[in-house]
């Protein structure tokens, strides 16, 4: 095929890396040309992820070994902090490269915000300026024209999708948004840590990063922009014993004159025609398992028993629409491919 | 032992019934004298719950077959609605009986509230009046003097314990309490329903009863009483893939002059000396698995990033402190036994 | 596309039915023309399985309502026992129909065996004779020429694939095959039964159908055929707390002169070129999660510490290669489509 | 109480250590006098295991810091290999000490066996000789007289309990014992390893240590002794997604004249009067969840469909009867306490 592009995946030994491979293997316009994993360089991908036994894939190499001349687009699935230097280096070698970055390094547009939330000055300020924030449905035009796309956080995507349209239409109080966002374990990655052992996380639940989770900064940025003023969201993530899925329960206070039905109507209109976003009938509650393994999002709006509040629920798969799937969707946009290509699969349920 | 009492458990074939048996088998002052299960009458308890293989227990009988003369106290673990008639009947036969009721039938003191939330007039209004609301730590004196104790809902106990003291001290805004309360499956009981099958609830999460869950009425009753005015809580329960545990994330707005630290201090003082309630150090977040299988509660208070809000977290085991354990605790109070008797076991973790 | 075929799925409200829909939505040569679910007729598929929200699918109808003239192939995902009559009725109306049956009704070729294991005489003896046993890799030619394909049981497929080649080559003792086959819950279907509730099956394991599980009859039939004599397998299924996956641990006694390495070599040769079967390197142990959600099978052979035995391990996803995926694979064979079409997706892991 | 003994737990920061604390807190004759955890010395136990918040417990110290003069009995829950030196050191300082060792270091009586299975010569041969093998029900007299008890492996206890009596009575073929033993994750301990992460082990199953798991050596030792000759068991452990529980499916070939019923009768007689062992009615299948969190064992015997084989099933909680519970039971025996003391709790189910 004439328009087959060559992609590299940096950080292929992590979960977002393997998820990219899974999705791209079904993409008709993509050739996986390079896979990197610094500490596992030299191994076959099937040694690191046995689900790929029998698949022809390039061996894992170091980032330094990539032949960038042969690469059209890079997915960067590396840890936060080190990513900015790596990407700056890639662009130095090849200005025309496209990069979809799954780390947090280019998500915040304001250098001061970055420093506040990440504790050190940004190392690639010029790139930070040009990066497009990658919630595809809300920023499609900027993404299409960018060479660097900052794929947003999984919690962030989940809450931004339903709340930004409501803030834009001034239907809810920007000062009183309460987000409780339950997530499965795969979002925590593959690093061996005691608190991520099966015995430590099965049969139980706990909050983490309370009052200070870094995805809050992405909510702030997008909520402020949407409402045209400072917003005030309280964000509490919960870790629950499942692999995949994010489930945001957002309690909102209605603006004067607004109703829960009006919220529902606005979301329905905003996302009419969007292939990946289903707004359920008013009052219906989504379940995370119905988007598991897919790039789909399900949204629900329910009235509270009193007149002034509503509960907005949003769910997606953290590794797909919350990471690698949205990255592929952004690749489709930036490359001019049909946006759903490689992402058509419905949820694996049960 | 001179002070051994005889108890009957009505509804022994359900999960709260079997949990009562588990706990009471370790209680030095209780003899399990009767077990009822109308549809399974005639069977051995070990046929219905094989964990009791080898234990000497009375066979399951119907309620009609109980010899009330030989019974000092009844635990009633029957479905909502039918319970009020059953208990009225018991008291008719034996006025001096003590009853700890685990259903919802006697939790609401106001008949109008009951009718609003349960859809029909209460059938035992006199008993409703005399029932003591059974959050032990907050209502000990009334419980000690009652013959009928209404054991509160599992979600209710979880949120009432941390929030009522804060409302009493006027430290938080009664108009803006947002409760998201994640629960395991055992709270849904043992009835065979499609939506409770393993394949329907594993690897996923969803909200239920949004905007209308009946435990809201118990929060209203206790929050109004504590604040001395109408309060306004939004309560959203989540169902998550675990057996046991409730985990309430309560986002509160601080009253003028209050701080998150002050909230923590108040809870610490309120529950100092309480054997079953641990207030964790300020900023520490509890985990439901650390109370699993036990009658203990863990509370945490964390400051939000802004000055005006705090996140209060409360967790307990829905079948123990959320149901059968608190029922035994209430039995201890009403019978004048040491309050911790039969309930000393720490959590089963991992 | 000229060669688009129209298929009907009978029993679309069960898990194998929804899995067929999931797979066929990605199949380039299939149109889902009819979906039946007698008790849920009239409902939209998305009401029964919300993962299909937004997908254009026919409404659920009764079997009687199908317009067979417009159907080329029927997937029958109905309960055992009633299926034989339904399929006989379909062929009466349309002799040229192709049917892939996922029930057990046509798996046993011998009417006496059927009666022994299912407790009643077969009601469609002529069809029973012509049905092709649908382990695709081992019976491809018969499948290609059949109009009725009996998709085998999930446990059966898992053990037949590794053991039949070893029996054919007389490498193992047919008298001493011990199969312990662990399965997830989705194989038990969607019927509301107490023993399938989350609380009854999470955090634990138990055997079921010990000494008498009906899939044993399929093992007997295929093992006898492969060894050319009566074989003797002991088959114990375990139910474990996961949704998807079967994991067969087969302990075999080596025939004189055979070695574990030779077993591995034979499987490697037998399945060389098979797109869905990966024989792992000698001594490597498969994991069920690496085939989850996919049509792939992973096989492993490990030597026991003594010289005379080996452990052969086989794993697949019970809803895909163990049911709906193999059904689609058989459809591909019988329709002359590329065998992997619609089935290329790799496992969803993690 | 006059007969209160002081115990130390070495390795209190691991799961068997915390389980010992949980059990001993309910034991009326034991004072927990010292807790060690070399790398976490100085911390409070509640920092390492928050379920102990509010319990008065000694701070964690190093082994070197223990005041042995004040200790009557030591539970040693340290890693294999290093344990033998530690225990030799303890006895050097205090000959009259009692030690219950939960490691593998003293389980094999034959130094050659130890060297074969552990890859190095034993460092404390004299102690190895005097250690009593701690399957309580089968070795009670030796345990009562020992100062060093080697608590057996969790898989070993599970299979030894049902199989040794059958071998002693020559009811089964010692040459053809096939054990498939499914275990939960907590047996793997608390070390941070990639393969033990929630995402790596949930929703799936796999075998491990196939053909070479070290618990095989304990089966060999006890099976050989029971049968009076060399036996031949094939042992395959499976890891399944649950925390607690071991479930052994043992396929046995009947000796001439034996029947499955006879096996059942023998186990029933052997364990009549044993407080912790329930032999279910013939043909009934145990479930691991019905012993979860308890020191109980449930055994079942089922006939295979042919006359010559039977399936013997045994289940227990790996952290209780498979480790810390049996250690406490052995302490009770060696100290002359009632054997069930501290261990009476029934399973936590659901």
From TrEMBL, chains A, B, C, D:
It is found in: Cytoplasm. It is an enzyme of class 1 (oxidoreductase). GO terms for molecular function: N-acetyl-gamma-glutamyl-phosphate reductase activity; NAD binding; NADP+ binding. Gene3D superfamilies: Dihydrodipicolinate Reductase, domain 2, NAD(P)-binding Rossmann-like Domain. The active site is at 154. Pathway: Amino-acid biosynthesis; L-arginine biosynthesis; N(2)-acetyl-L-ornithine from L-glutamate: step 3/4. Residues 6-146 form the Semialdehyde dehydrogenase NAD-binding domain. GO terms for biological process: L-arginine biosynthetic process. It catalyses: N-acetyl-L-glutamate 5-semialdehyde + phosphate + NADP(+) = N-acetyl-L-glutamyl 5-phosphate + NADPH + H(+). Its main location: cytoplasm. One of its GO terms (cellular component) is cytoplasm. The keyword Lipoprotein does not apply. Keywords: Amino-acid biosynthesis, Arginine biosynthesis, Cytoplasm, NADP, Oxidoreductase. The keyword Cytoplasm applies. Its EC number is 1.2.1.38. Catalyzes the NADPH-dependent reduction of N-acetyl-5-glutamyl phosphate to yield N-acetyl-L-glutamate 5-semialdehyde. HAMAP family: ArgC_type1 (MF_00150). PANTHER family: N-ACETYL-GAMMA-GLUTAMYL-PHOSPHATE REDUCTASE, CHLOROPLASTIC-RELATED, N-ACETYL-GAMMA-GLUTAMYL-PHOSPHATE REDUCTASE, CHLOROPLASTIC-RELATED-RELATED. Belongs to the NAGSA dehydrogenase family. Type 1 subfamily. This is N-acetyl-gamma-glutamyl-phosphate reductase. The gene is argC.
């Amino acid at each position: 095929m004439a328009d087959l592009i060559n992609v590299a995946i940096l950080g292929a030994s992590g979960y977002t890396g393997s998820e990219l491979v899974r999705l791209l293997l079904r993409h008709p316009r993509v050739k996986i040309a390079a896979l990197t994993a610094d500490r596992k360089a030299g191994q076959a991908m099937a040694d690191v992820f046995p689900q790929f036994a029998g698949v022809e894939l390039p061996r894992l190499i170091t980032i330094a070994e990539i032949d960038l001349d042969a690469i059209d687009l890079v997915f960067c699935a590396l840890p936060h902090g080190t990513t900015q230097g790596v990407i700056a280096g890639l662009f130095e070698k090849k200005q025309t490269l496209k990069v979809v970055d799954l780390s947090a390094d280019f998500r915040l547009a304001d250098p001061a915000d970055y420093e506040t939330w990440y504790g050190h000055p940004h190392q690639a300020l010029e790139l930070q300026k040009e990066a497009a924030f990658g919630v595809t449905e809300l920023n499609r035009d900027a993404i299409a024209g960018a060479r660097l796309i900052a794929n947003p956080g999984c919690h962030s995507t989940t809450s931004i999708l339903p709340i930004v349209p409501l803030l834009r239409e001034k239907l809810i109080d920007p000062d009183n948004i309460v987000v409780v966002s339950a997530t499965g374990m795969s979002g925590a990655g593959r690093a061996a840590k005691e608190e991520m052992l099966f015995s430590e996380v099965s049969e139980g639940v706990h909050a983490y990063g309370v009052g200070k989770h870094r995805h809050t900064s992405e909510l702030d940025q997008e909520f402020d922009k949407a409402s045209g003023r400072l917003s005030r969201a309280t964000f509490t993530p919960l870790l629950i014993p499942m692999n995949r899925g994010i489930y945001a329960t957002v309690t909102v206070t209605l603006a004067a004159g607004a109703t829960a039905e009006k919220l529902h109507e606005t979301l329905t209109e905003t996302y009419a025609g969007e292939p990946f976003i289903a707004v359920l009938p008013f009052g219906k509650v989504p379940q995370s398992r119905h988007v598991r393994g897919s790039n789909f999002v399900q949204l629900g709006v329910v009235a509270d028993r009193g007149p002034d509040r509503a509960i907005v629920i949003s769910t997606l798969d953290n590794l797909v629409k919350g990471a690698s799937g949205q990255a592929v969707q952004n690749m489709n946009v930036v490359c001019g491919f049909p946006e759903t290509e490689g992402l058509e699969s419905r949820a694996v349920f049960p």
